[in-house]
Amino acid sequence: MSGILFMLPNRIAERDLTETIPEGTLAHARACRYFLAENAKSARAYLKALEHPVPIAELTIVEIGHEPDPARFAEWIAPIVNGQNGCIVSESGCPGVADPGAGLVAYATERGINIKPLVGPCSILLTLMASGMNGQRFRFLGYLPIDDAERLDAIRRLEAASREPETQLFIETPYRNNRLLSALAEHLAPETRITVATDVTGNDECIRTKTAAQWRQTEPDLPKLPTVFAVLASGKSARKAVAKKPQVASPVKHGPTRRPNKSRSR
């Protein structure tokens, strides 16, 4: 009989684990001996922080990287097929959600392995919760383009999509936070709302929602910390749709979620 593949969330900010990771999730992690990690070093630090009862050196921690190679799926899943439980753990947040793991889960599912997602923090959903924007229809876009012209085109397209109304969420490399906020404030319609959620669950957490016109009134001064942005166009039809229940949610889609200098933000 095959084992269980657990989807193990990681913390998204430097904080006491018990504040963001439920004890039930930690208990499953402590019982596991086989880990498929986006980054082996960060996984070892996480397992040490949660006080795994087995010495870290005696655990099997396989690094699958930011873009897991499908050619190695059979090798990585073999111990679970043979009856051992395993965990997929990302560097930050929930594996498989804007993070590696989805392809490996699909492969395991096709082979009859039971997948068990564990509860933990996700900065995308936490930002949506705090934004006051449409939680029935939303889309995660990953990173917007770096090139100014391409970025402007992306901003125009995401604002148009947000008029459905569909909340648009995306991230940026921390040192470009101010540049992105300036572009949003400048090019979005004055009444379009922008949420800026910095260091979610961290000691310096700050979540603010203002219209583009309000953001224009001050020079952006965001810290170089992981940040999630959310946008929703204003208008009577948008507000009515947000309040209406039930409403069928659109698929949550995302674009590229990685750049070479990856930061903890998921």
SSE arrangement:
Elements: E1 4-8, H1 17-20, H2 23-31, E2 34-37, H3 40-49, E3 60-63, H4 73-81, E4 86-89, H5 102-110, E5 114-117, H6 123-131, E6 138-143, H7 148-162, E7 167-172, H8 177-187, E8 193-198, E9 206-211, H9 212-216, E10 227-232, H10 236-243
Parallel strand pairs: 1-4, 1-5, 2-3, 2-4, 6-7
Antiparallel strand pairs: 7-10, 8-9, 8-10
Please give a structural write-up.
With 266 residues, the protein is an alpha/beta fold. The protein has two domains: 4-117, Tetrapyrrole methylase, N-terminal domain (Cobalt-precorrin-4 Transmethylase, domain 1); 123-243, 2-Layer Sandwich (Methyltransferase, Cobalt-precorrin-4 Transmethylase, Domain 2), CATH 3.30.950.10. 33% of the residues lie in helices and 19% in strands. It has ten helices and ten strands. The protein has helices at 17-20, 23-31, 40-49, 73-81, 102-110, 123-131, 148-162, 177-187, 212-216, 236-243; strands at residues 4-8, 34-37, 60-63, 86-89, 114-117, 138-143, 167-172, 193-198, 206-211, 227-232. It has a five-stranded parallel β-sheet, sandwiched between helices. Strands 6-7-10-8-9 form a five-stranded mixed β-sheet, sandwiched between helices. The longest helix has 15 residues, at 148-162. The protein is elongated. Mean pLDDT is 91; it is low at 245-255.
